[in-house]
Amino acid sequence: MGGSIFFTSTGYFLFHRMGDNLSGKEALNILKMRILQLFKVYIFWSVIYFPIALFYYFHDNQGFLFDLCDYIRKFLFTGSNHFSTQFWYLLRLIYSLLLIYFLLRKKITVKVILAIGFVFYILGMFINYKIKMNDMTGIFGNILKYFVSIFSQAKLLKSFLFVCLGGFISRIEFKKYINKTIFFFGLFGFWGICIGPKLLINEFILPLEVIILFTFLLNFNIKNRKVYIILRSFSKIIFYTHMYFYFIYTLVSEKFTRLPPDGSMAFGIVLFLCMCVASLLLYLDKCTKNTKVNKLIVLFIK
């Protein structure tokens, strides 16, 4: 559910920034600049994490051609590689925004885009259900096998809906229609997601849960507080760097058997290192006057 909230919040704030005329030149330029910014960040961190991928490919004994194709596939279609699984979010967001950009250029309304998002979501549910049941027989099953071999799952299709939901919520005064009573009813639905035995039922409930929880969160006005900028920067740096530090930790733990490979100690050490790096970068961003250094720091915290 966390990833769905992130996609929804991105869509909400981006559409809100684009103004009333979403198909206008200014709005489309804002969207295009955001896509380019995300792409630069994705390229930057893919390069940073490439040595880790290279390390594992060197030891897998699969051959150069297989490793090269596997890395290209993951870079273009899944966003997840060795110890860089968190970048699926960036890649799916880039693809979702690219599709929204194309639809807005064609003067497609937000409601129609949202409807397309629901179609993609239902299609993604169906594909994931087939994968879960290991039902890949017949013509559709063969097509599904190729789809899975490229994308692994149908999460790319489903992510598009939540970006659209955020954009749709930004177009209306949604907070007027959601009160605390509805929120608490929504908690029962969340409970159903956690323990529900039916995969499809859980996924049907998820969009409603995201709408209710996100709308509830909009009531917390923290953006105008100074702590907001610090918390936002810290969260981004932790998001980008935590798997790199965890990779280093796993290498060290292999040498020193007293260190557990995972658990609370691993979590604490990785978090401490991320916080140190975040503090250092925020300090450098505030104090340095070197333009090149500032541009580099932007890729971490902006």
In short:
With 302 residues, this protein is mostly helical. 79% of the residues lie in helices and 0% in strands.
Distance between the termini: 24 Å
Structural class: mainly alpha
Number of separate helices: 12
- What is the CA-based Rg, rounded? 21 Å
Low-confidence stretches: none
Ordered list of secondary-structure elements with their pairings:
Elements: H1 2-18, H2 25-59, H3 64-78, H4 88-105, H5 110-132, H6 138-151, H7 155-171, H8 180-195, H9 199-217, H10 226-255, H11 264-287, H12 291-301
Helix pairs in contact: 1-2, 1-7, 1-9, 2-4, 4-7, 5-7, 7-9, 8-9, 10-11, 11-12
How would you characterize the overall build of this protein?
The protein contains twelve helices and no strands. The chain has 302 residues and is mostly helical. The protein has two domains: 2-172, no CATH class; 226-301, no CATH class.
